[in-house]
Design brief:
With 155 residues, this protein is mainly alpha-helical. Helices cover 84% and strands 0% of the residues. Helix 2 (12-19) packs across helix 4 (59-87), helix 3 (23-49) runs antiparallel to helix 4 (59-87) and helix 3 (23-49) packs antiparallel against helix 7.
């Protein structure tokens, strides 16, 4: 894994990100916008699962409508995230907050997809409690993504 990070840092993209005056800032701004959009989607899906948002829409309609936005914003975050890592690969590789962020991200993406699929199947009365618990866990995981990301910049 370390070799992959080092290769990324020595690639033309890595060298540009490291040496550019404004490249890192521009990519980070887009990354944060992607995170904000993704966070909004996660909040809306969770509120739909908790049945407290988007009056007039079922949780299934909410989940179906948010799915393309989720995929788009996740794609933006992943692409810009790789570019940010390319700027200082060893710093990220050795960073505990970065590892936590990746763990929270993987769990958050997986749980989002799982909850979204559960909600699009329909309103099963027996599943409402489970969906609510999953929604709270989902919000907690994405809060972890944001906080761990913030700690990367502090260390």
């Amino acid at each position: 894994m370390r070799r992959l990070f080092l290769w990324l840092g020595h690639s033309s993209v890595g060298l540009y990100m490291r040496d550019s005056t404004h490249g890192f800032a521009a990519v980070e701004a887009v990354h944060l916008l992607g995170l904000a959009l993704l966070g909004g989607v996660v909040i809306l899906l969770s509120l739909g699962a908790l049945q407290v948002a988007l009056a007039g829409q079922t949780p299934a309609e909410t989940a179906r409508g948010l799915y393309p936005v989720f995929l788009s914003s996740l794609t933006v975050m992943l692409i810009t995230g790789v570019l940010l890592v390319a700027s200082k690969p060893l710093r990220y590789f050795l960073s505990a907050p970065f590892r936590w962020k990746m763990a929270f991200l993987a769990a958050g993406v997986g749980l989002y997809l799982y909850l979204s699929r559960r909600l699009t199947r329909g309103d099963l009365a027996a599943a409402v409690r489970t969906d609510r618990i999953l929604a709270v866990v989902l919000l907690t995981l994405w809060l972890g993504v944001g906080l761990a990301g913030r700690f990367i910049g502090l260390l």
